[in-house]
Design brief:
The protein is of the alpha+beta class. It has one domain. It is 24% helix and 31% strand. The N terminus is likely disordered.
């Protein structure tokens, strides 16, 4: 597991991974994709989810990122807003799990191509803002 992900895990609280300016987005992405690749079993419906934020304060901007084989998933939480990609492909909830095994069903319209989800994560890590590479709609 990469050093960047290990450092991020040390900042895990009840809400997710708290990022800092020292995080290299490419290292972080490499870490979560390595982690996802270690999943045993052939269940194509099984995905992992992470919650990324730059602050542990309540209401902090949070990008939820899921990975499931060739599929990614995104959701944006900020204060009372809950946004999903306008081009999300799933019509129903899809099961994702945290790295600790906690169930987190991703809402409809959250799934998009994997590379698009990872590009949004890279942008969020760098800019601490709603990723512009995604068109969003309130859910």
């Amino acid at each position: 597991m990469t050093n960047a992900l290990t450092e991020a895990q040390q900042r895990v609280n009840a809400f997710g991974v708290v990022l800092s300016a020292e995080h290299d987005p490419d290292e972080l992405i490499r870490g979560i994709t390595e982690w996802e690749s270690t999943i045993e079993g052939d269940d194509p419906e099984f995905g992992l989810v992470w919650f990324f934020m730059h602050s542990a304060e309540e209401g902090a901007r949070t990008l939820t990122v899921g990975l499931r084989r060739t599929t990614g998933a995104l959701a944006w939480f900020e204060d009372d807003a809950f946004l999903v990609p306008t081009d999300g492909t799933n019509d129903e909830h899809v099961d994702y799990f945290s790295t600790e095994g906690h169930h987190f069903p991703m809402d409809s319209r959250t799934e998009i191509p994997r590379e698009k989800a990872l590009a949004a994560l890279r942008e969020f890590v760098q800019h601490d803002a709603l990723p512009n590479g995604i068109e969003w709609v309130e859910q």
